[in-house]
């Protein structure tokens, strides 16, 4: 097993996750099996109560694991996310059982040993359908070097490099190289200080990745090489690029693939395959040449921080790129669409309404709590009445059911028991698994099977007419099955249900171009080369291409994704004119 540790310096959020994913992508393109581990030094046991990214086995983990899965097309597990809380819980449990034989339990060696054992164990777990044991494990250490929370992990890896031998371990350090406007030149002192601190803690970087807004000069790279005790070829520049899909290609162009092959003594041919990284190159070429734009309105309650909807945003980008459209995503605060906002701040209310009305499609993502519910319901009503493409995910599905019950079935007080426990029409109810008052680990989580109950379904077609699908879930509330017959009689069809037919998983509205709700989270397994079908359907419908896509067997041909809706008619007209024209060919030719 080969281990690649990725650390960060100067500032957090510098792009360690993308760098780690890109390193894995390059090695996977060489034919190696790659897995990933994300280390978060916070005390929380998991990420379930603040920024969850749900996984097949029901674990709630950091959002960065989504990057690894999307880049590497693998399925990671909850054990691939290590937190300080998990490690300390593990050590304390062993102490309570008497595994340490009455010894004083300390950070060194007990906590550091637990970290090393965890990494070695998880690195051996298969993450691909073929069950193959990984060859390489990339490890991202969250935070920045010098953080007090991360010290036990740094010490653990200082020991780990001797435990697994030098030829099986290397360290990549990602550091900021700022360029102050006052001078206009790149400054290397922050990187020098960061590397000095890393070396002082016992880890020497084998590769320094310089993050900057603009490309750094060779002079700057040589200076970093001289002061940081690495060769010039071990310093690479990673400046800001239009999309993260450029990063693996940019790293490969700077010789990183060969560097890792040599440093880790990988038995790989020196000559890369002819089609090496061709899929990524095609992806980047398409992204760089996008001209047409599709506008999607995202109505949610956490719009101040875009990372709150990171997985949703990525899924929309994947779908838009597959359709050859540039995504213009408009974040709308759900509370701004409520009647109370119109009275308190009419300008803000009308601005939100204007953004909604200018969009080509509407997405209402998942969430919890009362705030913004009425605003989401208002947006969904607008999409239903104006035949605008709509996708509701988790809470978005539940809000669509509430809106339909109120305005179509005339159940004016219909609601969710989460919002109004005393509603006479509880069309959305809590599940038996939900334990009120205890937030952590109380939801229906992980990959669950959904069975299509009707072949006459848009989503069934988008999923290539599969009889059932496996998607990830994360919810406490669900559609009340007692009201399903009334809803379906009025045109709201629940075309996908769980294995027992008790839980409503997929909703479609009859007579609407694309009005779809799903209880699961399809964004969690979307990736750039295989976009999520519900999100692809939303973007296709918003571009006016959904019917054309379905009629052609759900295949995105180059012509289909690049032509306008009227292009087929125009081509037919041009062909007819040509056939009616007599071509004058000179004699003798």
UniProtKB/TrEMBL annotation:
Catalytic activity as recorded in UniProt: UTP + L-glutamine + ATP + H2O = CTP + L-glutamate + ADP + phosphate + 2 H(+)
All copies of domain Glutamine amidotransferase, residue ranges: 306-534
EC number: 6.3.4.2
Residue ranges, compositional bias (Polar residues): 572-589
Domain CTP synthase N-terminal: 2-266
Principal EC category: ligase
Region (Disordered): 561-589
Pathway(s) the chain acts in: Pyrimidine metabolism; CTP biosynthesis via de novo pathway; CTP from UDP: step 2/2
Domain of life: Eukaryota
Presence of keyword Nucleotide-binding: yes
UniProtKB keywords: ATP-binding, Glutamine amidotransferase, Ligase, Nucleotide-binding, Pyrimidine biosynthesis
InterPro entries: Class_I_gatase-like, CTP_synthase, CTP_synthase_N, GATASE, GATase1_CTP_Synthase, P-loop_NTPase
UniProt similarity note: Belongs to the CTP synthase family.
Function: Catalyzes the ATP-dependent amination of UTP to CTP with either L-glutamine or ammonia as the source of nitrogen.
PANTHER family for this protein: CTP SYNTHASE, CTP SYNTHASE-RELATED
Record's protein name: CTP synthase
Organism: Limulus polyphemus
């Amino acid at each position: 097993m080969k281990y690649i540790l990725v650390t960060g310096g100067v500032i957090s959020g510098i792009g360690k996750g993308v760098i780690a994913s890109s390193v894995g992508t390059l090695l996977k393109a060489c034919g190696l099996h790659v897995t990933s581990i994300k280390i978060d030094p916070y005390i929380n046991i998991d990420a379930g109560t603040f920024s969850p990214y749900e996984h097949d086995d029901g674990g709630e983990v950091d959002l960065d694991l989504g990057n690894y899965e999307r880049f590497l097309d693998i399925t990671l597990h909850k054990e691939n996310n290590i937190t300080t809380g998990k490690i300390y819980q593990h050590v304390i449990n062993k102490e309570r059982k008497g595994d340490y034989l009455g010894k004083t339990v300390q950070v060194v060696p007990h906590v550091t040993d637990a970290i090393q054992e965890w990494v070695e164990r998880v690195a051996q777990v298969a993450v691909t359908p073929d069950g193959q044991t990984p060859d390489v494990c990339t490890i991202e250490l969250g935070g920045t070097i010098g953080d007090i929370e991360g010290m036990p992990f740094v010490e653990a890896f200082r020991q780990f490099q001797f435990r697994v031998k030098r030829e099986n371990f290397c360290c990549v350090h990602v550091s900021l190289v700022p360029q102050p406007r006052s001078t206009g030149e790149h400054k290397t002192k922050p990187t020098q200080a960061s590397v000095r601190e890393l070396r002082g803690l016992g880890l020497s970087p084998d590769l320094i990745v310089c993050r900057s807004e603009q490309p750094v000069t060779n002079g700057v790279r040589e200076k970093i090489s001289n002061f940081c005790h690495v060769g010039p070829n071990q310093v690479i520049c990673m400046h800001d690029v239009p999309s993260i899909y450029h990063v693996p290609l940019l790293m490969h162009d700077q010789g990183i693939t060969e560097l890792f092959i040599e440093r880790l003594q990988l038995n790989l041919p020196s000559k890369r395959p002819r089609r090496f990284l061709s899929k990524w190159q095609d992806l980047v070429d398409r992204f760089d040449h996008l001209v047409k734009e599709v506008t999607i309105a995202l109505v949610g309650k956490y719009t101040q921080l875009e990372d709150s909807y990171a997985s949703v945003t990525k899924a929309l980008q994947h779908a838009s790129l597959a359709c050859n459209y540039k995504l213009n995503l408009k974040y709308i605060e759900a509370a701004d669409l409520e009647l109370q906002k119109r009275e308190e701040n009419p300008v803000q209310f009308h601005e939100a309404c204007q953004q909604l009305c200018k969009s080509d499609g509407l997405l209402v993502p998942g969430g919890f709590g009362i705030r913004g519910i009425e605003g989401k319901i208002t947006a969904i009503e607008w999409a239903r009445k104006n035949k605008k493409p709509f996708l509701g995910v988790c809470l978005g599905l539940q809000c669509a059911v509430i809106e339909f019950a109120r305005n179509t079935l005339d159940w004016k007080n219909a609601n969710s028991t989460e919002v109004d426990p005393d509603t006479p029409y509880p069309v959305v109810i809590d599940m038996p698994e939900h334990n009120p008052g205890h937030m952590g680990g109380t939801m229906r989580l992980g990959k669950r099977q959904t069975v299509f109950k009707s072949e006459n379904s848009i989503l069934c077609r988008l999923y290539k007419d599969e009889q059932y699908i496996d998607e990830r879930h994360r919810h406490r509330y669900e559609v009340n099955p007692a009201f399903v017959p009334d809803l379906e009689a009025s045109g709201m069809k629940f075309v996908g249900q769980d294995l027992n037919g008790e839980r409503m998983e997929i909703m479609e509205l009859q007579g609407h171009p694309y009005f779809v709700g799903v209880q699961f989270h399809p964004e969690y397994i979307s990736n750039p080369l295989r976009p999520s079908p519900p999100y692809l359907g939303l973007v296709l419908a918003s571009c006016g291409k959904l019917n054309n896509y379905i009629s052609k067997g759900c295949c995105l041909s180059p012509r289909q994704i690049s032509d306008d809706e009227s292009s087929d008619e125009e081509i037919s007209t041009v062909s007819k004119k040509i056939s009616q024209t007599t071509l004058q060919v000179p004699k003798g030719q």
